[in-house]
Amino acid sequence: MKLSPGQVGFLVAIPMLTGSLLRIPFGAWVDNNGGKLPFLILLVLSVIGIAGLWWMLITLYPEHLTQSYYPLLLFFGALGGCGIATFSVGIGQVSYWFPKQRQGWALGTYAGLGNTSPGLVALILPLIIAFWGLWAAYMVSIAIVVLGVALYFLLSHNAGYFQLRAQGLSREDARRTAGSAGQELFPQDNAFRTLVEAARQWQTWPLVLLYFTTFGGFLALTAWLATYWQTYFHTTHWTAVELTAGFSLLSSLIRVPGGGWADRLGGEKVAVASLTLLLIGALLMTFSGTFVLSIAGEICIAIGMGVNNAAVFCMLPRYVPDAVGGASGWVGGLGALGGFAVPPLLGQFVSWFGPSGYAWGFSVYIGLALASIALTGVLIAALKREQRKQPTAKPSKASA
Q1: Is 388 contained in some domain?
Q2: CA–CA separation, 100 and 303 (whole Å)
Q3: CATH classification of the domain holding 280
Q4: Which residues contact 68 (CB under 8 A, 6 or more apart)?
Q5: Residue 101 gets which letter from DSSP?
Q6: Closest Cα to residue 161, out of 30, 37, 39, 26?
Q7: Where do transmembrane segments lie in this chain (predicted)?
Q8: DSSP labels for 275-344?
Q9: Phi, psi of 123 (to 5 degrees)
Q10: Which domain range does residue 237 map to?
Q11: Rounded CA gap, 256 and 238, in Å?
Q12: Is 399 a domain residue?
């Protein structure tokens, strides 16, 4: 299409932009209806977007795909990105099903297994393109998402409170009935209010930065690492692909046990430990300059990011219990913007320093890790203050 670098950059970023920003309203909408309807809407929009891209490939590519079709390409790319926004919807839907002490495990499993797709795609997609062509890769993507829509429609259910509300019970009766059946988390009564309520609670915003650092940072590195390995260390294409896919899969899968660690040890402690590991990895990749130590740094960053992502959503229902959907929308939406904002910063270091800028760019993660550790310390201090304010129960005469 003879696009400029700026046009290419915006084209690559547009699905991440829509997928990030739509997390905010759709995440809040969960508090109105439990999540199934907004999840399905986002998936269907994603199918339309991917199908549109596939149609453009089979009808226009390569002779007729000119710059005049660039706006249409952006439009279908933006629709395809809607599927990314299902993350915050699923966080809210899953969260209402589980008691507070199991939030870390439940959300870690949901997010950890769900986030393996970038790593799997990095390995599988080039093989499909090599054997069957670019159009086949989009056809496979359509088939996967359509199957996902069908399975989700058949198997997914909203938590008990939302099922009772759909049957016509009042909020009070539904809350009482669902509470007697074991549900512990309940929503505000409308989407806008839950967004406002979550935004008013200052604890939401440190969690946004923590998630920006580790999930937004994860998305940014998934897109950046292949270029980093090939350009800075002159690896082969497949070595760069394997290292990038390994990073993505490790960071995603470690999120599953990371949620359990956060449940047992406390989200704050796990967050500090994982962010410290991220800091060590960023220091290695910035200053080591050697291939082996940089691989060790990548592993540290992958583990640190994955575990901290689980810790954040373990802490979220604890700090914002009355607006989980709204808070997950803010955290998931603004946090994921790191995948849109960080790559240009990494590229700017290359512009400033030349090839060595590929290493110096990881200083961005040093700064983000330090700021996130400091804000986690603020959350811990606030929690201790609240615990000191709570009156200690006096023993009754009988127990004495």
Answers
A1: no
A2: 24
A3: 1.20.1250.20
A4: none
A5: G
A6: 30
A7: 6-25, 37-57, 69-92, 104-129, 135-155, 207-226, 270-289, 323-342, 362-383
A8: HHHHHHHHHHHHH--SHHHHHHHHHHHHHHHHHHHHHHHHHHHHHSTT-HHHHHHHHHHHHHTHHHHHHH
A9: -85, -40
A10: 9-383
A11: 28
A12: no
Residue 86 located in a structural domain:
yes
pLDDT in tens, the chain (400 residues): 888 766 876 787 788 889 888 988 888 888 888 999 999 999 999 999 999 999 998 999 888 899 999 999 999 999 999 998 998 899 889 989 998 888 888 888 888 888 788 778 877 888 888 888 888 888 888 998 899 999 999 999 999 999 999 999 998 999 999 999 999 988 866 667 778 888 989 999 999 999 999 999 998 898 889 889 999 999 998 899 899 989 999 998 999 899 889 989 988 999 999 999 999 999 999 999 899 999 999 999 999 999 999 999 888 888 888 777 778 778 988 998 888 888 888 888 888 998 899 999 999 999 999 999 999 999 988 878 877 877 654 444 443 3
**Token digits of residue 200:** 């008013």
Q: Please check whether residue 314 is in contact with residue 324, taking contact to mean a CB–CB distance below 8 angstroms.
A: no
Structure-block tokens of residue 396:
């009754």
Amino acid at 298: E
How many structural domains is the chain composed of? 1
211 HSE (CA, 13 A, CB side): 27
Spell out the residues 6+ positions from residue 295 whose beta carbon is closer than 8 angstroms to its own.
Answer: 243
Of the CA atoms within 13 Å of residue 294, those in its CB half-sphere come to 20
